[in-house]
Amino acid sequence: MTGEGEWFSSLSGVVAEEAIAVVARDVGAVIEKAAAPAEMAAGQSVEVEVTVGNAGPRTWVAADPESPDFTTLVCEWYYWDGQPCDGSAVRISLPRDVAPGEKIGVKAGLTAPPAAGMYWLVWRVEQPGAQAPAASWREDWLVQPVQVTGGPFQPIDLSPVANIVAVTEKTDVYISGYYAAAAGKRVPFSFPDTRGGVAGAVACQGQSISLGDAPAGAVYLLAASTQGARQVAFTLLSPEGEEEVGSLVVPDWTSFTLLSPEGEEEVGSLVVPDWTSPREGDQVGAYTPYLRGLTRDDVTAQGHLYVLELRPSRLQGVSALRLPKDAAVKVMAVTVERD
Questions:
Q1: Based on C-alpha coordinates, what's the Rg of the chain?
Q2: What is the pLDDT of residues 91-146, one digit of tens each?
Q3: What phi, psi does 11 have (nearest 5°)?
Q4: CB atoms within 10 A of CB 10
Q5: Residues in a beta bridge with 216
Q6: How many CA atoms lie within 13 A of 319 on its CB side?
Q7: pLDDT number for residue 295
Q8: SS3 for 268?
Q9: 11: helix, coil or strand?
Q10: Most confident of 116-130, 183-197, 263-277, 293-307
């Protein structure tokens, strides 16, 4: 208000309106660059040079943890869906105090997560007395995408057996945790490449999928049924032909078949949920807020892909996966876990 008791906005024309967050104290950090590699092997450690600037009015204190201006650089890994990796935050001490307007180089030790996949590497500056971020990504954070390779998980290329168009380059598919609740176990999947405009998935028709040379201890599917929940069976096979068979008493069951390097087989059962109707307890691995059709979009329906685990109970390794003869079951991605 003015001294005459009038609102200042009434003394002029149109006034721009913008909400401004007022905090007790901000760090005032500017992270200019971090020389982190774009690709790292799982568990790999490297040293990264980070350039940080103090854009605030107070000197950053490097060596006195009791000071309200005690400042550290923090690096933390986030999954691709924006959820933090538990225990990954590392605090790096500054080499000296940093005055307002000054820049400094900090050497930071960086270790990649133990599992393959796409991650966000987040750099930020923290002080004990500064206000915590109000949003997921702050403007004074430096966020870098990093591809992590290797580790116990290996995505399998499904392009040789893809037989349906499932994803377009404009399809909105969000990994678990973006809209849907994050799956209980983090399994990295390789989504189909849509740079050509469309990408395929696999409608199950009894195909066999090689799972690589090294035996796998578990197989994870990103899959769903398009005709209601389907209860299906699977069989594990070894190169020698030995079988381990479970009960197949329901006529409508179909079979997933897993083959071990020795030819052994193992049969069990699992339920593939319907892609539009997740049930309580289903592990949603990916979500789309609407379904895209050939001629129009269906904005009233949502799509879900589920994480399904196939783990042998007796066999020492699995070398191939035989899909059921049930085209209602669609598989978007397969990942194996090696011992």
A1: 26
A2: 999 999 999 999 999 999 999 998 888 889 999 999 886 655 544 446 788 999 99
A3: -90, 0
A4: 9
A5: 318
A6: 13
A7: 77
A8: strand
A9: helix
A10: 116-130
Contact between 166 and 201 under an 8 Å Cβ cutoff? The reply is yes
Structure tokens at 28: 């005032």
Nearest CA to 321 among 306, 334, 339, 307?
334
Where would I find the beta strands (DSSP E) of 102-229? 103-111, 117-126, 142-149, 153-156, 164-168, 174-175, 198-205, 208-210, 218-225
- Res 259: pLDDT: 61
State the Cα–Cα distance between residues 27 and 56, nearest whole angstrom: 6
Q: Which residue has the tokens 């691709």?
A: 80
Q: How big is the chain, counted in residues?
A: 339
Output the CA angle 170-173-177, nearest 5 degrees: 150
Q: How far is CA 149 from the centre of its chain?
A: 14
Q: Tokens 């990103």, residue?
A: 222
Q: How does strand 164-168 pair with strand 198-205?
A: antiparallel
Do 113 and 148 meet the contact criterion of CB atoms below 8 Å apart?
A: yes
Look up residue 239 and give its DSSP letter: T
- Contact call for residues 103 and 94 (beta carbons, < 8 A): no
Cα 168 from Cα 173, distance rounded (Å): 10
Q: Which residues pair with 323 in a beta bridge?
A: none
- Amino acid, res. 70: F
Here the tokens at position 287 are 């979500």
Quote the CA–CA distance of 48 and 143 in Å, as a whole number. 14
Q: 69: which 2 tokens?
A: 């201006």
Cβ–Cβ contacts within 10 Å for residue 43, how many?
13
